[in-house]
Amino acid sequence: MEVLQSGNDPALVTNLEVMQLLQERIAARQQQQQSQTPNGGGATDESNSTNRNSAFQNRDWIEQTVLNHLQSSPVGGINVESLQNIPTLVEQLRRAPTTSNAASSIGVQVSSPTDEQQEQLSGYGLTNTEILQLLNHLPTSLVELHLLIDDLEKREHLDEEEKQMELLQLISQFAGKTDEGIE
Questions:
Q1: Region entry Disordered: which residue ranges (predicted)?
Q2: H-run or E-run covering 173
């Protein structure tokens, strides 16, 4: 067996991406089965179809079971269009937190940004695994957030409850949930 790509980090896939992939595969398979139904078919077409179905029966069951589980998880209620927003959200979660004081101390001219611009500029400095956990679990409470992010209270940019609530609101906006869902 030959390793095609070595030295690369493994690709991390969110539950939402897996759910979309499974939905596409199952829909394509169902469409293919509908197009292959015999039109007055003979016994050979029917026996080939039965053999093919039984050969992939376990795979089909596993895919459907995983899809059902993902649809009942927190990501199940999200529109698949949210996949387009994942790179933007990940970038903001990964980006190191910035403050205007730090920028001015190194001689950079900083104009006073509006609150909306400041929210877009600031990041949270989370690791890839923390981001993956947040995207998979979509926390709605501070308790869940503390369980998913290591040493949350020791991080300068997330040590206050207000900042943690801002992070929860960002995640809820991505998930398409209202502020009422945040405790």
A1: 27-53
A2: helix 161-175
Q: Give me the helix-helix angle, 161-175 and 86-94, nearest 10°.
A: 170
What are the residue boundaries of the structural domains of the chain, listed by start?
Answer: 15-36+44-77, 80-181
Name the H helices within 10-97: 15-35, 43-55, 57-72, 86-94
Arithmetic mean of pLDDT, 13-27 = 91
Q: What's the CATH number for 80-181?
A: 1.20.1250
Distance of alpha carbon 166 from its chain centroid, rounded? 19
Model pTM? Answer: 0.69
Buried-exposed string 132-141: b where 16+ CB fall within 10 A, e elsewhere:
bbbbbbbbbe
